[in-house]
Every structure is written in structure tokens, then in C-alpha cells.
Design goal:
Length: 587
């Protein structure tokens, strides 16, 4: 009797899963790559409980026929390569035919798909597969439930939700940067975490992912060699990082880690960055598939490229040229966040809001309050032009109603709607406004009416010079007025909408009782206090104009999705979700 046995399919799949499906982010990667291979232009990812409970990827790609949908779960079943020639000319992200069988060996999978002609739903659970006809628009939804339910060791080995979610976000944004022509959204526990516009503009995608400040500090890079094309954006010398994680390289649409190429990029920056700082780079390499071998490792992270040395030299030579050209442009501004002028600027200009209503011409420099002030005093601050953050989701938002005097309901322009918490939204706006203002030289003034405060003896004792100094940096300068009495000589200038006394009391209290005296932290607290007090409360009636103004101002913040305390400012229901809730999609 022989000792060698051919493994049964179930076991073989689980072993493969061990290699391909390490963690929830691996599932996300495989599913999204399948959606990309299926020519999707829009891919939505939903993750619950760090992917342990559910990962769902919805695309509008080619879909599958009934037959293919069932075949897809067999090992080595792939539509992407047919023969050896194809293996050495890979143009798709997948080709090993391992992902779906691997995933379904360690989770419950529901695949719903339609190729526009017929729809089908395949449920694979405990190695059992059932399928039934299913109504769906063209595209595919893959739902992965209870990941690693049958491999407790794997489950135990997962990191904290925070880390797993971070891995998922990173997976998506790297794929999004490799595919700026695909609109991605990522929701984690129903919170929108990432949204790219999918307009094919890599700089816009960089902005969607990393924010305006990063997008403002990148330079276009383009190089054509004999065997490859390099395209993308490279950070200028102001955009430095403390580690290598912001060097993002993609090869033929796939995020790849090429250590030698990464080192070449770092070398190219040697004369431009301080030692121990690393550049920000997003480069997409387009290389003739025959010259690339992705079939090195199951996750395809590693790659062999026969002309790697040429690519390295090209980067080492060309990157400094682009950076030098940039250095010849004089730095015209000492203001923070000045706009780098380049050919993309006009595009962003066009992307800005164009609300029809002139009554809502806002003054971005004012705290956002309503009916608390009517004076429109001139303000020449630089902030107005320069906080123009763009979040494309706001482009088509149209407020239609207010409910409970607390929430603004908006159509999203695509058949769905947003619920915006008016107070949280305004806190975010004011928070960022105050944050910018606090750095400016003239942010304090003498109070109109003298303010005298009384401290307790203990508080007087705590009021060291260091604390006095910190208070000054937070806009409050105190002078001893005899005993435990102090006079407030200076307060922040943002006179509208915030209660000076409350601000002074809260901030002094915070500074006195803080042991660490971390200025950054205290500043954040102080600003959040001010923003909260200055912000519109719930229970305030808003006109449609008011609502437009709130949304418009919110859209320009760096993070419109959360208030300074981390609570969400908005909840989104897409058309699809509504249809699903009303059971219109044949669920
Ligand atoms: P691979 O991607 O290596 O081919 P997978 O197991 O990931 O293997 O997928 C198997 C097959 O299922 C794919 O070759 C493709 O034909 C089909 N498929 C998977 N996901 C999708 C999708 N989102 N849209 C259309 N077809 C898909
Ligand atoms: Mg695949």
C-alpha cells in the first residue's frame, strides 16, 4: 500500500488559501482584482467587522454566464489564460484560478452575477454549492461571510480591527492609484472611508486618496524607454515622509513591490531630501507583458522584470531632472498651502462648486453660524482661496429638506441620498477654519471689555511660566492682577460665533490640569472646543440656502466625513441600497 495520497479538493483548496488568503485584505484584493479584470468602471467595497463578518464587492463589469459562475469556484478555473503562451503574456491581474475556490474554502461565499442576458446566484457553503436564477443589472456582487470560520488558527492570528481595516484601505487605494479610470468606494462598517472619482486623472485620484495638500505638492512624471513607459506623479522636496510606504509602484495595473526599483527612487531623491526622509511617489509602469513574470509567488506581489536595471537607471536619471525643473520656479509665497500652478490646476478650478444661488456667496473666512451675525466685514485673509479642498462627492449634492431641525437631507445626484448632521458638519468646518487661523500672526486681540478671572489657589500654583506660554500660543495671554486674580490681555480674534468666556475657561482648565503639556494636543482640544461652541446647534431651522452653504463649506474641508470628535458628519444611502432595502433588486 502506498503512503502517498492525492489530497482531496477541499484540503487542497484550504492549503492554497493559506498562501493566497492571509487576511481580510487579501480577500478584498482578490475580489477587486477580479472586478478590474472584468472591465468594471465602478467598484464598491463594503467591509464589516474588519472583514471577519462580511466583505462585499460590487462591480459593474462584464458579469458571468450561469455556467461560468459555477465553474469559477473550481480550482484552476480561469477565463484569463488558456495556454502557456498566455502565461508569459499576462495582461490581467488574475490567471491562477485560485482566488474563488480558496476563499470559498475558508468562508461562505454568495456570488450574484449577470452578463446582461442572464443572472445567477451561486451560494457556496461548507463545500456545497447551490445556484438559482437571479435578477441583477450587468455586473457582479461577491459576498464573503464569516471569513476563516473553519480555520480558527487563522482567525486568531488576525490583528486588531484597526490594523486589518488599515490593510484593507491600503489595498484599495493602491489599486485605485493603479486604475484612476475606475471609481472606487470603500465603506467600513457603513462609514465611507475612501472614494475616488474614476475620471482617469491620476492627480485627482491622488487628491481623493491623500488630500489636497499632497496633490498640490506633486509633479507630473513621464518617461518612455525602449521597453517600458513610466507615468505618474512624484512629490516635490516639501512632501517628505518618515518611511518608504509612500513610494507606490504599479506594474501593468498591479501594485508591486520591487525593492531595487524602490531603492533607485530613493537614490534619485538623495540630493533633494534630508537624510532619513523619504519621498512620496506614485508611478505606474507599463511594460510589454512578455518581459514580466508575475508567476513567482501566489499573491503575485513579487515580480521579475528582465529590464529592471534599465528601469532603475531611467528613474535615477530622470527624477532629478523633474525636481530640478521645479526648483527653478521661484517660490512666490510664504503663505502656507500656496497653490502650485500646473496644467492640472485649471481642471480643479472647473471642479469647484458652482451653486446657482448668489445669495449663498459665502465668506469662507467666517465661522459658520447662522443668524448670529449679519455683518459682512471685509476680510483679506488668504484662507478664502486656499482651503479649496475638493471632495467630488459633493458635486451633485442637492439639499431638499431638514428633519428634526437637526439633519439635512440631500439628493446625491445618482438616485440616492445623504443625511448630514448639521451640527457635526459645522463643527468640522469651524474646526478647520480655526486651525488655520490659529497659526496666523494676527490671531489675537485685546478684549473690548476687560476680562478678569479668579483662579483657585491650587490653580494659581499650577499656572507655571510654561503653562502661561502655552496659553499664549492658544491665544490667551494672562497677566497677574494681584493674588489669584488674572487679567486677560489677549484673546483669539474670531469674535463671531464663539463664546469668549467659555473658551477662556475651558482652555485654561485644560492647560492647567494637563500633565503632558503637549502643545499640539492642547491646540487640537482648544480648537475643537471653539468649533463646537461656535457651531450651529441642532434644533435650528435652516433655509435651503443655509443648507447649501453648510454643504459647500463642508466640501472644502480636508475631512468632510467626520466631525473633530470623530463622529460621522454624513450617512449615505445609494440608489442601489435603497432598491435593496425596498427589495427592488430581486433580493
Ligand atoms: P482568476 O482571477 O485567477 O482567473 P479567480 O478564482 O479569481 O481566478 O476567478 C475565477 C474566474 O471567475 C475568473 O477567471 C473570471 O472568469 C470569473 N470572475 C471572478 N470574479 C469575477 C467578476 N467580478 N466579474 C466577472 N467575472 C469574474
Ligand atoms: Mg482572480
Amino acid at each position: 500500500m502506498s503512503n502517498i495520497k492525492i489530497l482531496d479538493i477541499e484540503l487542497a483548496n484550504q492549503i492554497a488559501a493559506g498562501e493566497v488568503i492571509e487576511r481580510p485584505a487579501s480577500v478584498v484584493k482578490e475580489l477587486v482584482e477580479n472586478s478590474i479584470d472584468a472591465h468594471s468602471t465602478s467598484i464598491d467595497v463594503f467591509v464589516y467587522e474588519a472583514g471577519r463578518k462580511q466583505i462585499r464587492v460590487e462591480d459593474n463589469g462584464d458579469g458571468m454566464s450561469k455556467e461560468d459562475a459555477s465553474l469559477a469556484f473550481f480550482r484552476h478555473a480561469t477565463s484569463k489564460i488558456k495556454n502557456k503562451f498566455d502565461l508569459f503574456h499576462i495582461s490581467s491581474l488574475g490567471f491562477r484560478g485560485e482566488a474563488l475556490p480558496s476563499i470559498s474554502s475558508v468562508a461562505e461565499v454568495i456570488l450574484s452575477t449577470s452578463n446582461g442576458k442572464e443572472g445567477v446566484q451561486v451560494v457556496v457553503k461548507n463545500n456545497n454549492s447551490t445556484s438559482k436564477p437571479y435578477q441583477l443589472r450587468k455586473g457582479t456582487i461577491v459576498e464573503v461571510n464569516n471569513l476563516f470560520f473553519n480555520t480558527p488558527a487563522r482567525l486568531k492570528y488576525l490583528k486588531s480591527d484597526y490594523t486589518e481595516n488599515a490593510n484593507i484601505i491600503e489595498t484599495i487605494y493602491k489599486l485605485a492609484l493603479a486604475h484612476p479610470d475606475i471609481a472606487f468606494t470603500l465603506f467600513i462598517d457603513d462609514k465611507l472611508r475612501l472614494k475616488t472619482s474614476g475620471r482617469g486623472d491620476l492627480k485627482e485620484t491622488i487628491m481623493n486618496v491623500f488630500g489636497m495638500n499632497t496633490a498640490k505638492n506633486v509633479l507630473p512624471f513621464h518617461y518612455e524607454g525602449d521597453d517600458f513607459i513610466v507615468d505618474g506623479f512624484i512629490g516635490n522636496a516639501e512632501l517628505t515622509k518618515s518611511n518608504r510606504y509612500s513610494i507606490i509602484t504599479n506594474l501593468n495595473g498591479r501594485n508591486v513591490y520591487m525593492p531595487k526599483v524602490q531603492n533607485a527612487i530613493i537614490e534619485a531623491y538623495a540630493d533633494f531630501l534630508p537624510p532619513t526622509r523619504y519621498p512620496f511617489v506614485v508611478l505606474n509602469f507599463t511594460i510589454e507583458p512578455a518581459l514580466v513574470d508575475f508567476n513567482v509567488h501566489p499573491t503575485k506581489k513579487e515580480v521579475r522584470f528582465s529590464k529592471e536595471q534599465d528601469l532603475r537607471l531611467a528613474l535615477i536619471n530622470e527624477i532629478p531632472k523633474v525636481l530640478l525643473r521645479q526648483n527653478l520656479t521661484p517660490s512666490v509665497s510664504i503663505k502656507p498651502n500656496y497653490e502650485v500652478q500646473d496644467e492640472h490646476e485649471t481642471k480643479y478650478e472647473q471642479m469647484r462648486f458652482s451653486f446657482k444661488d448668489s445669495a449663498s456667496e459665502e465668506n469662507n473666512d467666517k465661522p459658520l453660524t447662522f443668524r448670529m451675525s449679519s455683518s459682512d466685514e471685509q476680510n483679506t485673509s488668504v484662507l478664502q482661496q486656499e482651503t479649496m479642498q475638493k471632495h467630488t462627492i459633493f458635486e451633485n449634492i442637492r439639499p431638499v429638506a431638514q428633519i428634526n431641525l437637526t439633519y439635512i437631507i440631500c439628493e446625491d445626484g445618482e438616485g440616492g441620498f445623504y443625511i448630514i448632521d448639521q451640527h457635526a458638519a459645522m463643527e468640522r468646518v469651524n474646526y478647520e477654519l480655526f486651525q488655520e487661523k490659529m497659526g496666523l500672526p494676527n490671531f489675537t486681540r485685546t478684549p473690548l471689555i476687560p476680562i478678569i478671572i479668579e483662579l483657585t489657589p491650587k490653580e494659581s500654583l499650577l499656572l507655571t511660566n510654561e503653562r502661561l506660554d502655552i496659553l499664549k500660543k492658544l491665544g490667551i495671554s494672562l497677566e497677574n492682577f494681584g493674588g489669584n486674580t488674572y487679567r486677560v490681555n489677549e484673546i483669539p480674534t474670531f469674535e463671531q460665533g464663539y463664546d469668549e468666556n467659555i473658551y477662556i475657561q475651558n482652555v485654561i482648565h485644560q492647560v492647567l490640569y494637563d500633565d503632558k503639556l503637549d502643545l499640539n494636543e492642547l491646540r487640537k482640544d482648544a480648537i475643537a472646543t471653539m468649533a463646537c461652541k461656535a457651531s450651529l446647534k441642532a434644533n435650528q431651522a435652516l433655509s435651503i440656502d443655509d443648507m447649501y452653504q453648510i454643504i459647500r463649506r463642508l466640501s472644502k474641508t480636508t475631512n468632510p466625513y467626520n466631525c473633530p470628535h470623530g463622529r460621522p458628519t454624513m450617512i449615505h444611502y445609494t440608489k442601489y441600497e435603497l432598491e435593496k432595502l425596498f427589495k427592488r433588486t430581486g433580493v
